Amino acid sequence: MMSFYFIDDDKNICNILKLIINERGLGVCCGSANNAAEALEDLPSAKPDIVIVDLLMPEMDGISFVKQARKIVPDASYIMLSQVSSKDMIASAYEAGIEFFIQKPINSVEVEAVIKKVSDGLSMKRMVRKMQNIFMEDTSPATVTVPDNSEQIENSLRTILTRIGIIGDIGSKDIISIVKYLVDHQDNADSLTVSDLCSRFCDTPKSMEQRIRRTAFNGLVNLAHLGLEDYSNEIFVDYSSTLYNFEQVRKEMDFIRGKTDKHGNVRIKQFLNALASYCQ
What is the DSSP string of 188-216? Predict the structure, then answer.
């Protein structure tokens, strides 16, 4: 169950959020504050999973708060309350680490929907991290037994690849093959490079790896375009910081805008591991 911490200079807002979360069984409330300075003192002991903070507060605004808070509780997710519609300010908030906005005045249906989305994303990140740790650990002689659910895995992968617009790319079939292998061989997959993995399926592993890289990069580009159109786009929020590194997605967005001449990069092994985690 997720734990929540609230920061808003209006006590009524904090009380409303507590009421919504308690009544709808969304988690537990581990603390609240009416200003950013007080909240920064509380965070080390509260250790919340999700922090909901107002954008416009006296002395320290929500964006400045999040930049400092992430140093204290880097694994937490941050939601921002705001009446502001400025794209530049919203972009600054996302760059600071905000994962979603809730518009004021507060609507309980929107609060529940956003919290569920952020909770699911946080659970996904933790699963990815756990899977990466498993790959990094020395394995015992005993092998990991994985149930035969190949069809279910492939369906899950096709859904994700469709959502990020690359199911029709030639490399999507290669990605599905590699990810299914990763799911079935959790005990030794981390020791294999992408090239090693490709060599298990193809006599020309370099060509297969290139197809995968092109396809994964196309997904990055698609997400960047979605983010430019709408930072709160569900697909953008779901995958920009799990399948990809969010900073690289932002870099690609800047390239599309013409602010830089460098594309964002894709970490292929992270991309494949994240897909494998989605299939667990």
Answer: TGGGS-HHHHHHTT-S-HHHHHHHHHHHH
Phi then psi dihedrals of residue 102, to 5 deg = -120, 125
Global pTM reads 0.56
Cα 70 from Cα 227, distance rounded (Å): 22
Q: Which of 271, 67, 267 is nearest to 172 (CA)?
A: 271
3-state secondary structure of 244: coil
> Rounded distance, CA 245 to CA 249, Å?
7
Take residue 72 and report the two structure tokens written for it. 């204290």
Q: Which whole number is the average pLDDT over 139-163?
A: 70
Distance between CA atoms of residues 229 and 71, nearest Å: 30
Q: Write down the residue that tokens 């002991």 correspond to.
A: 45
Structure confidence by residue, pLDDT tens digits, 161-194: 999 999 989 899 999 999 998 888 766 666 788 8
- Buried-exposed string 67-82: b where 16+ CB fall within 10 A, e elsewhere: eebeeebeebbbbbbb
Which residues pair with residue 61 across a beta bridge? none
Q: Where in the chain are all domains bearing CATH 3.40.50.2300?
A: 3-123
| Fold observed for domain 3-123 | Rossmann fold (3.40.50)
Geometric angle at alpha carbon 119, from 114 and 125, rounded to 5°: 130
The three-state secondary structure class of 6 is strand
Q: What is the largest CA-CA distance in the chain?
A: 65
Helix, strand, coil shares of the chain, percent, nearest 5, are 60, 10, 30
- What are the residues facing 54 on neighbouring strands? 81
DSSP state at residue 144 = P
Residue 253's nearest CA partner among 270, 236, 268 is: 236
